[in-house]
Amino acid sequence: MDSVNNRPTVGMGVVIFKGNKILLGKRKSSIAGGLYASPGGHVEYMETFEECAIRETREECGIEIQNVRFQRLANVMAFKPKHFVDISLIADWKSGEPQNLEPDKNEGWDWYDLDNLPTNLMATTKLTLESCKTGQMYFPLID
């Protein structure tokens, strides 16, 4: 939440596929600490969604992605008092080995088989995977 203007923040996550695996990291932050999530962050001023996904992936993991595309939109109020308009993209791994470039925010990155994911996934990552399976693209309220 933008406490000055009392408005939601635009959050962006990107689920990255490498064959039958996705990239996940265990979060350390105050929001969803201890849960596994895909790379992501906030959309910057004058940045496209695709640019944000590519930038956040480079900043957090040091890898390159390709074939970036929209997957779902959600109105997330699960992390009160913060309120996010959460946009999720999916992409394909292009090159590089995941590195933990933000060790204060994440315990590290690894590839997880879609059939053997950690049980403690962040809600927004779960939604994206559900969207991939069902085709549902809009989640009106996640509380």
Which descriptors would you attach to this protein?
single chain, 143 residues, alpha+beta, Nucleoside Triphosphate Pyrophosphohydrolase, eight-stranded mixed sheet, 17% helix
Account of the protein in words:
With 143 residues, the protein is of the alpha+beta class. It has one domain: Nucleoside Triphosphate Pyrophosphohydrolase. 17% of the residues lie in helices and 42% in strands. It has helices at 49-61, 123-134; strands spanning 9-18, 21-27, 36-37, 40-42, 64-76, 84-95, 106-113, 138-142. Strands 1, 2, 3, 4, 5, 6, 7 and 8 form an eight-stranded mixed sheet that branches. It starts with 8 loop residues before the first strand and ends with a strand.
Fold topology:
Elements: E1 9-18, E2 21-27, E3 36-37, E4 40-42, H1 49-61, E5 64-76, E6 84-95, E7 106-113, H2 123-134, E8 138-142
